[in-house]
């Protein structure tokens, strides 16, 4: 099979296995507590093969609050002391287990351990706090439970392709941005949908509840039926594969991974129609933890074996860009 851009897709069981992952894992329970130390292990997914280009975002969000995080610091404070002094000496991190190359379980690997770009970052933060990259408990959190899980103390932080914006900053605090992305349309490659425009009129469009995509569709639907919302973003891909919806609106970085999983779909439109930044979300007022995470990110961006190495391992394949980490902006 060939992609719409004329590239050959790899043959064999890898994409088929990942397609099955999309159809099954996305229908799993909405909150799964993983055993202490459950981790990505291994060396990562195969990096070779074909790519799904993601163009640079077209415009900035009107409420971009990526510059509202605290400056970095390596000093402990009350939040970090509480984490260090509890009985189980591990950082509890909310993650995804269904997003290809971000936080997922490769069915072709023995053990099915979590791995991906976000998992690497979570491990780096645990290493900074406990001097042990394995001192982490991963909890699978659906899209619509990310903020509640932080507020009610189920997790210390969420590292789960979560966009920083002003509305969310009312409920949680964020690190500086660690990845730049934007919203884009995902649809069958044979569809007459051409992007986030009038071609959506009369089409059924899926988004995740509590996502930026849902917010954007409420602002401008272009006449689409936007009544289909799901707890987990990957559930939209399942509905698209089953023919229950005509398109999905989601982050371009996630959509690129989904298009890599299923060559029957593709990104529509030349580029994303928003500019967004993923950040690590933490409890409101946990200033010492926010500063420590920002120190980790500052070092991670600068280290050739940090952000760039993780990007090359997990994201260069599906995204197809020689990307670099976004510049950190802090509030005064």
Name the descriptors.
332 residues; alpha/beta; D-Maltodextrin-Binding Protein, domain 2; 6-stranded mixed beta sheet; 5-stranded mixed beta sheet; 29% helix; globular; disordered N terminus; signal; SBP_3_CS
Describe the structure concisely:
The chain is α/β, with parallel strands linked by helices and 332 residues long.
Structural summary, described in words:
This protein is an alpha/beta fold and 332 residues long. Among the domains are: 78-180 and 277-319, D-Maltodextrin-Binding Protein, domain 2, CATH 3.40.190; 183-268, Periplasmic binding protein-like II (D-Maltodextrin-Binding Protein, domain 2). The protein is 29% helix and 18% strand. The protein has 10 helices and 16 strands. A 6-stranded mixed β-sheet has the order 1-6-2-7-16-8. A 5-stranded mixed β-sheet has the order 12-11-13-10-14, with helices on both faces. Helix 5 (212-219) links the parallel strand 11 (204-208) and strand 12. Helix 3 (117-130) crosses helix 8 (287-302). Mean pLDDT is 83; it is low at 1-62.
């Amino acid at each position: 099979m060939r992609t719409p851009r004329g590239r050959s897709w790899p043959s064999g069981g890898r994409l088929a296995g990942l397609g099955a992952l999309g159809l099954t894992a996305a229908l799993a329970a909405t909150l799964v507590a993983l055993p202490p130390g459950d981790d990505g292990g291994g060396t990562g997914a195969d990096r070779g093969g074909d790519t799904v280009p993601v163009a640079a975002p077209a415009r900035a969000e009107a409420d971009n609050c990526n510059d509202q995080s605290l400056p970095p610091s390596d000093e402990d404070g009350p939040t970090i002391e509480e984490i260090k002094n509890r009985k189980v000496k591990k950082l509890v991190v909310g993650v995804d287990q269904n997003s290809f190359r971000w936080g997922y379980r490769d069915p072709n690997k023995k053990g099915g351990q979590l791995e991906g770009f976000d998992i690497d970052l979570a491990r780096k933060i645990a290493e900074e706090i406990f001097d042990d990259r394995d001192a982490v408990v991963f909890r699978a959190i659906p899209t619509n439970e990310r903020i509640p899980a932080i507020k009610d103390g189920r997790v210390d932080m969420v590292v789960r392709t979560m966009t920083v914006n002003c509305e969310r900053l009312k409920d949680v605090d964020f690190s500086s941005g660690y990845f730049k992305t934007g919203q884009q349309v995902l649809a069958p490659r044979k569809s007459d949908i051409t992007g986030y425009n009038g071609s959506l009129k009369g089409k059924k469009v899926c988004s995740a509840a509590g996502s930026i995509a849902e917010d954007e569709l409420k602002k401008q639907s272009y006449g689409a039926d936007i009544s289909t919302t799901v707890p987990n973003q990957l559930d939209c891909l399942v509905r698209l594969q089953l023919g229950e919806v005509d398109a999905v609106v989601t982050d371009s970085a996630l959509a690129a991974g989904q298009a890599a999983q299923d060559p029957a779909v593709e990104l529509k439109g030349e580029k994303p129609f928003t500019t967004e930044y993923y950040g690590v979300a933490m409890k409101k007022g946990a200033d010492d933890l926010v500063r420590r995470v920002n120190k980790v990110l500052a070092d991670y961006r600068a280290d050739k074996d940090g952000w760039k190495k993780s990007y090359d391992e997990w994201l260069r394949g599906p995204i197809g860009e020689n990307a670099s980490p976004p510049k950190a902006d802090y509030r005064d």
